[in-house]
Specification:
The protein is built from 13 helices and 4 strands. The protein has 285 residues and is mainly α.
Length: 285
């Protein structure tokens, strides 16, 4: 970032700066998504967009989060690569970068060293500011040594634009520019902000079952939108669980999908919520 002239950066109140050049793809994809208003509408485009969004969201939460960040289940080395590749099709940087920074967040949640606390640094910073800033470009390998030992993951992490480029090219080859705008551009924008709400809104709105020492909250609407990630207070109380909806009425589509995949032998040893964790004394919302 030092090579970027200061006049090509946007200053932020906390002293960080957003590089206009480095953030240009992020803003261009948002602009490209608006082209749906100039494209013909077909139900095929909408259904495909939602289907691709679902698959990418699943691999973000099951891959980036529950597997690489928290090791809440096991899989083979080959399928580990598939999970990483599919998660990275979300265009949220490298798998090692994502998981390392998430582990850092849990270590310092809602403290001064937290990367994206909305209660300390505001909504904009927690939602998109931190990921666009010049502060966190590097991968914290000291946080992710257990997965950094795999050369194929280091390669993916270095060339993190390959998976989204492959997905974008595939969508374009299948449906041309209209489907590219719908399923890739619009879908990517929806996926980004879907994911980012967990860093921002899930620390601001919802109920608290457990005293976790931070402001994490359970939010049923965010849980539906993010396939289970909205049970954020549950997650901060016991991070190692593959299931974030601790009770049957807490819908966790990612967990249901992982369970089905375990029947096929693709994943195994899904970590459960121990009985003593469920028995912990709840706190008032």
């Amino acid at each position: 970032m030092a090579s970027v002239p200061r006049y090509l950066t946007i200053p932020l109140p906390n002293g960080s700066r957003i590089s206009i050049l480095h953030s240009l793809p992020f803003f261009l994809v948002h602009l490209a998504a608006l082209l749906i208003f100039f494209m013909p509408f077909h139900w095929y485009y909408l259904v495909t967009t939602l289907a691709v969004l679902f698959v990418r969201m699943f691999f973000v939460t099951a891959g980036y989060h529950r597997y690489f960040s928290h090791r809440s289940f096991k899989t083979s080395r080959a399928f580990q690569f598939v999970i990483a590749f599919m998660a990275m099709s979300s265009s949220q940087k490298g798998v090692l970068w994502w998981a390392a920074h998430h582990r850092h967040h849990h270590r310092y949640s809602d403290q001064e060293l937290d990367l994206h606390s909305p209660t300390l640094f505001g909504f904009f910073w927690s939602h998109i500011g931190w990921i666009l800033s010049d502060k966190y470009n590097d991968t914290r390998m000291d946080y992710i040594g257990d997965f950094a030992k795999f050369p194929e993951l280091r390669w993916l992490n270095k060339y993190h634009m390959v998976p989204p480029a492959v997905l974008g090219a595939a969508v374009w080859l299948i449906g041309g520019w209209p489907l590219f705008v719908w399923a890739f551009c619009l879908g990517t924008v929806l996926l980004w902000h879907d994911t980012f709400t967990i860093n921002s809104l899930s620390h601001l709105f919802g109920s608290r079952r457990y005293e976790t020492g931070d402001t994490s909250r359970n939010n049923w609407l965010l849980a539906l939108l993010t396939l289970g990630e909205g049970w954020h207070n549950n997650h901060h109380h016991f991070m190692a669980s593959a299931r974030q909806g601790f009770y049957w009425w807490e819908i966790d589509i990612t967990y249901y999908t992982l369970k089905a995949m375990s029947w096929l032998g693709l994943v195994w040893d899904l970590r459960k919520v121990p009985a003593h964790i469920l028995a912990d004394q709840p706190v008032a919302a």
